[in-house]
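Title: Prediction job returns without error message
Component: structure pipeline
Severity: low
Priority: P3
Assignee: unassigned

Description:
Job completed but the reporter wants confirmation the result is attached to the right record. Sequence as submitted:
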Amino acid sequence: MRGLRPTRHRTRRAERRRARRQPIYCRAFPPILPPNDACRRIAGARRAPGDVSLVRLSDRLRSPALWAFARALAIAVPAGALCAALKTPLPWMIGPLVACAIASGSGMRLLCPAPVRCAGLWAIGTALGLFFTPAVLLRMAQQAPAIVAGVVWSILLGLAFAWALRRFAQLDPPTAFFAGAIGGASEMALQGERNGGTVETIAAVHSLRILLVVIAVPFAFKWLGVRGTDVYEHVARRIDYDGLAVLIAATVGGALVLRWARSPNPWVLGPLLVSIVLTGAGLWFSALPPWMITTGQVFIGISLGTRFRPGFFRRAPRPLGVALVSTLVGIPVTAAFGWGLGALTGVAPATMVLATAPGGIAEMSLTAKMLALGVPVVTVFHVARVVFLVLAGNLVYRLIAARVGWPHVHARRAPVRAGDDD
């Protein structure tokens, strides 16, 4: 193995040849953990033509990505158990999120692999879709005007955030617009990059906003004693493992189809749409076991917490400071709008507050599920917001840019990353 050890005299051509031989497992995490000696040794080992295995078990156990994820799990699970013992809201998501954010920000190398995050999003999307019975779908159709009002509000709120970032953080127009937009984080970053924005700043602002909303909203509801008596219930309460296998196969297939179609957030929207179709058609296979939903929360918490690297707040202090203040101001303003919209439409005001909150689909819908606050209403509002902004966000920016003279670029739609969070 000594001959495979990297040296200073290796040429660039040799590096490229070695990278092409790099196994899939090591290629999965290039943005976060560049392959070190262990990964290079694995990459340099040639495989027989008929060998379909990725790497040997001993090499896989030495993978830096695997150990980084193991450290994240070792921190996240006790933190979730502690929050559950303290009876905090969403303990198995908020506990891992805060603990991993502190550890990762302090310099500990943690990682949430993309397949792990996708598994967490799959569990939440599938569980939420089981609420959509035929009667619920009929009621959602009657809420179409309120859904449109929620989408319009999210656009206006995003424009207000963009104005604050432009005015007080001195960001360029595309970076300010797509950092302020309340859409999918990955898709907003890609659209911002195509229009000349700074991807790192857009991603950082979205990460901070989601962190604040996920922590502040559930704790505010618990502090105010807000809890609903949700009339929407799972049709399938019994766990049937044969039916569960069919449900898993169908929902994973839906996620893969949307991923192939380059849809935003495929591992939430795919399982969600498939389970909605199945439940709405009266095909009730099984409920998800509670441990699956808990594991999904832990994975989502880890994926959110590990975004905060050392020096996160030092890279762009002014934009992040403006994002912090604007989000803390935007949460109560949005709560007031949601409360008024609920009073006008006859929906529980607390449900509408969650439905219009500037958070992610999985996090806000999961909060609604734990507090029994109209899961279908919250889910539909957030799905409509994300889909509209992902599909029409670039168009909205072009219209504004053409009117006020901002720069914009006409480009083809780029692939969407599997780990989108909103």
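Comment from assignee: result matches the submitted record. Confidence is low (pLDDT under 50) at residues 1-10, 19-55, 410-420.
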